[in-house]
From TrEMBL:
EC number: 3.-.-.-
Example of a GO MF term: hydrolase activity
InterPro entries registered for this protein in UniProt: AmpC-like (IPR050491), Beta-lactam-related (IPR001466), Beta-lactam/transpept-like (IPR012338), DUF7586 (IPR056008)
Uppermost EC category: hydrolase
Stretches assigned to the DUF7586 domain: 385-463
Keywords: Hydrolase
Name of the protein this chain belongs to: Serine hydrolase domain-containing protein
Compositionally biased tracts (Gly residues): 14-27
Organism: Nonomuraea indica
Record-annotated Beta-lactamase-related domain positions: 58-356
Domain of life: Bacteria
Pfam families in alphabetical order: Beta-lactamase (PF00144), DUF7586 (PF24491)
Annotated stretches, region: Disordered: 1-30
Keyword Hydrolase: yes
């Protein structure tokens, strides 16, 4: 097997075009004919290991069919498929239901509205949907599932029955469907995203899906993502727990609840979405807005903090990675997409089973990629710096505590305690000659530099501990040298 070719036994470890090659997704268009051994594709050993993990998943957990992909640097590095759809191996373009991954697409449009000034994340939703009885809940709380709303609508089992229209859903909701004080805790709410979908429709003047299609799907080239299934698509099944037989699951238009989980998509489109979550926004969102969506607004597992939620994106931590994306579940279907923006990688799967896919599948695929083909660090090279900034570098003291100030590329500064830990922050330059904190304790705060001191939001750092010649608030009486207490 060629070194640049992914494992292709039984047609399951290959490129979308049938050969191993680089498949571009960053520009929003999947290449029709990937090049043989194209840039970004994994080697034979890696492809085989990835394929085996997928094959074990499908066989041991009795999944009717499953497709998976790994994305690196905006390009598909590997694609695999196991099982059968209508007697054939599922392909790169076979549709499966996304379930709650739909929520992230709706959230992007909400953030676009915020960036346009059409709404504020602190707006009570009642400002835009005056008929809702939970109008005090904010837009940000709906996005992050911290509004305290009931998880499911006051209808029949909405995932398995035809949906009701928005006016009927609004009429059925009342104040009793707020289960927790808004802002108190994480409580996943499908109802909250039904409200966000209607908010989008009101502010855009078109149905929520039309806004998502025009503002997200089309610009990203995700043309196989649709409201209802189209050929080729998988049928959703439940697998009997004690026998190898299948039960076809129902599929309906969820109507008012559709923004919570209606959409169908393919591995090709979901790979583009993984690249988006990793930072390849294609102009759909500003980079800083996407970064804001990935910030943890709440955690859902207490002190462990392995899982949480941002603004429309689920978060999880694994093996030093902080992943952003979403899981999805609807009758007969499971899906997951994760991206690590720090490493430029993404992973996804789509399966037509109600339950059974291991929660570890996606991170296992990432671990295999890291084990077999770890990323090489970028080569270090010297850079041109402002001599005036160079003079600021070195040792400073916050009272008696030593800090190191380092100059980063682009005129950024890093201020961190000697030995690590503590109040470490990076600062980015402003046009007025000051810096603003990017992260850590001083995020958003201003740093001003003088020859003999740094002022970080009134905290004074001096070259010597409590330097008497620098403007230390409160004055400095001098260090006692006699040894007396």
């Amino acid at each position: 097997m060629d070194a640049g070719r992914g494992a292709s036994e039984n047609g399951t470890g290959h490129s979308p075009g049938g050969t191993a090659g680089g498949t571009g997704v960053a520009g929003g268009v999947v290449e029709a004919g990937p090049r043989e051994g194209g840039v970004g594709w994994v080697g034979a050993a890696t492809g085989r290991a990835l394929l085996r993990r997928l094959a074990v998943e499908q066989a041991q957990n009795r999944v009717p069919s499953i497709v998976a992909a790994v994305v690196r640097d905006g390009r598909v590095a590997w694609f695999g498929a196991r099982g059968r759809v209508e007697g054939e191996r599922p392909t790169w373009r076979t549709q499966y239901r996304l379930g709650s991954i739909t929520k992230s697409l709706v959230a992007v449009v909400v953030m676009r509205l915020r960036d346009e000034g059409r709404l504020d994340l602190l707006d009570p939703v009642g400002r835009h949907l005056p008929e809702t009885p939970m109008g005090e809940v904010t837009v940000a709380q709906l996005l992050s599932h911290t509004g305290g709303l009931t998880a499911e609508p006051p209808t029949g089992w909405w995932e398995r029955t035809p949906g009701v229209a928005v006016p009927e859903l609004m009429a059925r909701l009342d104040g009793g469907h707020v289960r927790h004080r808004p802002g108190r805790r994480y409580h996943y709410s499908n109802v909250g995203y039904a409200l966000l979908g209607e908010l989008v429709a009101r502010l855009r003047g078109v149905p929520w899906l039309e806004a998502v299609r025009e503002e997200v799907l089309e610009p990203l080239g995700m043309r196989a993502t649709t409201e209802r299934p189209r050929v080729p698509h998988a049928t959703g099944y439940a697998v009997h727990p004690y026998a190898d037989v299948l039960l076809p699951e129902p599929e309906h238009d969820a109507a008012a609840m559709a923004p919570a989980g209606q959409l169908w998509s393919s591995a090709a489109d979901l790979a583009r979405w993984a690249a988006f979550c990793a930072g390849e926004t294609g102009g759909v969102l500003a980079a800083e807005t996407l970064a804001e969506m990935r910030e943890p607004a709440t955690v859902d597992d207490g002190d462990a903090w392995t899982g949480g939620y941002g603004l429309g994106l689920q978060l999880t931590r694994h093996a030093g990675r902080r992943l952003a994306g979403h899981t999805g579940s609807m009758p007969g279907f499971l899906a997951t997409v994760w991206a690590d923006p720090a490493d430029g990688v993404g992973v996804l799967y789509l399966a037509n089973t109600t339950s059974g896919v291991s929660r570890s599948l996606t991170v296992d695929l990432l671990d295999i990629l890291e084990e077999y083909e770890p990323r090489l660090p970028e080569e270090w090279a010297p850079s041109a710096v402002d001599p005036g900034l160079l003079a600021l570098t070195g040792l400073w003291h916050w009272g008696p505590t030593p800090y190191t100030l380092r100059l980063l590329p682009g005129g950024w500064l890093s201020l961190a305690p000697v030995g690590g830990g503590g109040r470490a922050s990076r600062f980015v330059p402003r046009a007025d000659g000051t810096w603003v904190g990017l992260d850590g304790y001083y995020a958003g705060e201003t740093l001003r530099a003088a020859a003999d001191h740094l002022d970080v939001n009134t905290f004074v750092f001096t070259r010597a501990p409590y330097d008497g010649d620098a403007p230390v608030p409160g004055g400095v009486a001098g260090w006692r040298t006699s040894g007396e207490g």
